Amino acid sequence: MRWLAIAVICAACSKHEPAPAKHEPAPATHTGCDLPEVPSKLPAPKRLVAIGDLHGDASAARRVLRLAGATDDHDQWIGGELVVVQLGDVLDRGDGEQDILDLFARLETDARAAGGGFVPLLGNHELMNAAGDFRYVTRGGFDDFRDAPGVADSPVDVHLLPDAARARAAELFPGGPYAKRLAGHNTIEQIGDTIFVHGGLDPMWATRIDDANRSARCWLAGQGPQPDVLTADDGPVWSRFYAGESVDCNDLARALELAHAKRMVIAHTVQPNGISAACDGRVWRIDVGLAALYGGPTQALEIRGDDVRVLTAKP
Predict the structure, then answer these.
(1) pLDDT category, 16, cuts 50, 70, 90?
(2) Domain 45-309: what homologous superfamily?
(3) Which of 23, 30, 125, 260 is catalytic?
(4) Would you tell me which of 114, 145, 256, 267 could form a disulfide with 287, CB atoms 3.0–4.6 Å apart?
């Protein structure tokens, strides 16, 4: 079968999933991919808010969107010209994934109409699901996609998969309806002078931003080979170089220099004491374990020009 299909039901696996092996990235190959471009760089808005991993917790998603001033109690966009960027890992470990994906799709449209923006990025778990790695899917996560629109008409051949995994695979494998929706999202985005990326961006990958974005998007749309961003443990969705106590600030500075940026905002690795910074504020780590599985605080990162501050909801 074309796709790797690992349909192991796992309701509460470790956050520190193993990454693929390190390797040198292959040359860009986008032959036959006719996707419209999604800009890798956007101008700085007056107010920008970044949100970390959500892992299938729709309630946590709504709480942090309200904290950001993006939506009201009825999920309507009230942010005006606000730009929100969400750093991936919407999928896995929770039961509300389809709800979040549908909410995000609507907010992309509504925010744009209001003069703002909603920018979801790809995390490793979005790419893992597209590759058939279902190790971190909950039972509810499998059931959730059974009634998803487009399952019956999906071009993905799922007849060899276990029954429990078929609906999810039909939607999320490359070329499926939700995979095509994810193909509209970048892996790396620069907004103003800030780089946003799920895992981290080292100097080598800082020179390949456009290629990393397009290769992942083409693959998700069913129009290209499996991308390096899925398989490289030092790549943008897997790297933990800047997430721990010891950070190579010189390496970070070089990556930022190559990307022509002042700072980097990353997720992927839960910060035990809430949002944290390193290297004199040149990297901000915003995965605080928002999902109920982790029980972290409701926090987001606000950027207004050079003013960066942590937003925290009252308990």
Answers:
(1) low
(2) Metallo-dependent phosphatases (3.60.21.10)
(3) 125
(4) 267
